Amino acid sequence: MSESDTGLRNRLVDVGVDLVAREGAQALTLREIARRAGVSHGAPRRYFPTHLELLSAIARRGFAELAERATAATGDGTAPPREQLTALGRVYLEFAVESRGMYELMFRHDLLESGHLGLRDTSLPLFGRLVELVGRARPGADARVVAGALWANLHGIAQLWAWGSLQLATGADDFVPLLRSALDAHLGDGA
């Protein structure tokens, strides 16, 4: 792929990232991305033969950003695992709230299921980090299962928070107490 081809491919992904941030995952059509990139509606197919491949390339950017934030939040890895899990959970929930369209795109089953599209390579290391920290926080537990349950809990908090349901039901104006409660439920009381 020539440098100009790489530039156009990246521009299409950049436009998609911007579009999902502004208008949500439902706005990500090949035609709209091409229009905003200033190319013919058929041009994206040259670089992304299927719509799923373009969506996956956009979602990979989201996973990369989330991974970068997670790495920054957990620092050099020397803090106690519970502290790192708290930081990781906070970053996850903040990302979900701040980047709702990207967050929804990243966890679409049809994208994740398509292993050949490369999303597993960017999403599984994040889960692996969660498993490692849970294993350190709860030695002897099945860390993959506990990490899966914790992730599902965080995902539920993120989704219900985005819908406004948790604020209505709990009267909370911040998700941090919910995060602490989720960590207590899965790791034991951290007090």
Total strands: the figure is 0
Radius of gyration: 18 Å
Question: What is the overall shape?
Answer: elongated
Distance between the termini: 55 Å
Report on the architecture of this protein.
The protein is mainly α. Helix 5 runs parallel beside helix 9. The chain is elongated and about 55 Å long. The protein contains eleven helices and no strands.
List the helices and strands and how they pair.
Layout: H1 3-23, H2 30-37, H3 44-47, H4 51-74, H5 81-98, H6 100-106, H7 109-113, H8 119-137, H9 143-163, H10 165-170, H11 176-187
Short description:
The chain is mostly helical and 191 residues long.
Characteristics of this structure?
mainly alpha; 0% strand; 11 helices; 191 residues
